Amino acid sequence: MIACTRARWRRAATGALACLLVMPAQGHAQSPAPPPEEGTAMPTELDPRAYAEITRLTDQGQALFDEGRLEEARGLFMQAWALLPEPQSEWEATTWLATAIGDIDFLKGNHAVARQTLEFAMLCPGGLGNPFIHLRLGQTLLELGEKDRAADELMRAYMGAGEGIFAEQDPKYRAFLATRAILDRALQRRSLQ
Predict the structure, then answer these.
(1) Is the dihedral angle over the CA atoms 166, 169, 173, 174 positive or is it negative?
(2) 142 to each of 3, 112, 182, how far by Cα in Å?
(3) Against a cut of 0.85, is the pTM above it?
(4) Could you read off the pLDDT of 86-127 as tens digits, one per residue?
(5) Three-state SS for 184?
(6) Which SS3 state, helix, strand or coil, does residue 4 take?
(7) What is the DSSP string of 7-41?
(8) From the CB of residue 61, how many other CB atoms can be counted at a distance below 10 Å?
(9) How far apart are CA 110 and CA 85, in angstroms?
(10) CA 31: distance to chain centroid?
């Protein structure tokens, strides 16, 4: 299991990430909020009190995650998510919260929910192109039997972060990718660009 810290999720978000809202009680995915009406200016920064509370909840959630208390951590991440103003999909914080939630869903074997969450994360600020999100989405898709899409996402993770992205993962994901691509050549092409 990879122990991702909030800081790692946040770094991932600023590098290219994504997010989804999952209701804590039922675990059913919700659609992202619609964009604001034309002419409505969206604030560019979170209210300082809301940001402080989101940070507090996220720090507590991370501590629970580190202790292996995944459901409790997920609940705190969901509480933090609920504090984000609409449309939630426009906030960078949504990216790292959705990534944390999707990571937990993957680790708990809730692959269908993890897929929805991580696909949404790709739509949030900095989501698309984030190696960790691509990794988790690829792993999730492989677990769901969607091998072609899984190979695509795992290759995006590999191209974005190199061999190291698989270091702490079950070797089956890297082995699967190696059946679909010549990995050393892929990295060589990337370094020539």
Answers:
(1) positive
(2) 21, 11, 19
(3) no
(4) 888 888 888 999 999 999 999 999 999 999 999 999 999 999
(5) helix
(6) coil
(7) HHHHHHHHHH----EE-TTT--EEPPPPPPPTTPP
(8) 26
(9) 27
(10) 16
